[in-house]
Amino acid sequence: xxxxxxxxxxxxxxxxxxxxxxxxxxxxxxxxxxxxxxxxxxxxxxxxxxxxxxxxxxxxxxxxxxxxxxxxxxxxxxxxxxxxxxxxxxxxxxxxxxxxxxxxxxxxxxxxxxxxxxxxxxxxxxxxxxxxxxxxxxxxxxxxxxxxxxxxxxxxxxxxxxxxxxxxxxxxxxxxxxxxxxxxxxxxxxxxxxxxxxxxxxxxxxxxxxxxxxxxxxxxxxxxxxxxxxxxxxxxxxxxxxxxxxxxxxxxxxxxxxxxxxxxxxxxxxxxxxxxxxxxxxxxxxxxxxxxxxxxxxxxxxxxxxxxxxxxxxxxxxxxxxxxxxxxxxxxxxxxxxxxxxxxxxxxxxxxxxxxxxxxxxxxxxxxxxxxxxxxxxxxxxxxxxxxxxxxxxxxxxxxxxxxxxxxxxxxxxxxxxxxxxxxxxxxxxxxxxxxxxxxxxxxxxxxxxxxxx
Length: 454
Known about the structure:
This protein is of the alpha/beta class. The protein contains 17 helices and 19 strands.
């Protein structure tokens, strides 16, 4: 058997690929990272426009324990910037008014978002008989445990902000793995959550970014890779040879002992079509929701409702076109000039997938109408940037956990292959980062003997 040219190749330099590269180094392998775009960071795209610092992709991130450990090893923990405490207040549009999202049991008792009957049903969760959410949708699981009102008005609305999706289609075990596990092990979400607090490995609380936006995190992670990162290089083909992977790109090719695919599901499926058609088919079955992100600026005082807290979400029952709006200049300093507010509006999702096909003018006018309805505008907002994401957020269905487990098992049988990205372990930035860590370990564990001895 011949010796591979490189220890490992990582395809994609989004947060999952960058995390995989750093983890590979920590495990003793020197990776070559290939990224088709001219900048690292993937969907983490921050931009300065007219004195504003805006995000075209994800806006904030949580920092769970695995992410925190890797960021420390990579030397970028000091770049993190915590959101203002005021950002813990979140709102839901309810009957045309912005109501605070309940932050605890007492707040849930007082909220107008639920009827008296809905509140009693929610508080009865510890008394609800044990079931199994593994094969249920979020709506089925949460309706059974929390009641229909809480499922639709609270949980469903929350998922609008995270997944731009529909709780009636999203899989409970994929979206809320801890809650399903709590019921399975403790018979109750509440009892499981209380038990899980003791001795749990913790990351950082709250929401985070960097002073330069989330793109700054991508640049920080990329800087530590030096010449091991090659930008503007698109991988054309991936073939399994007897003792290695052959990775072809731009008229070149290298033989790698291990490969991590840290690209969207459809790209990973295309690259794997020759190596394993069944694996490619399973990965290609991951669905996505389209989203339009609009960054707009308004003058301070130009809204009847105060611009405060994290922002607001819009339930499906309100019948509005807007999914939600984030008050970015209230979360982090330096996001807007003095006297201005920076707002990020989200439109589309599974609720209205055709929104991505509207022209810029129509989308800007729509955002104005929706913000006027929710905030009460006294002046016209200024559209700073508009970004269409045709495949923005993965939509894990009730079969997603089994699909990913099967894909990982086939990847292990192929040997030397890891799968990473927001479609693998969760759609958040920190979840994608964690998937890169896992994929690096999987790829190295599956290397053939000749690659391991290199």
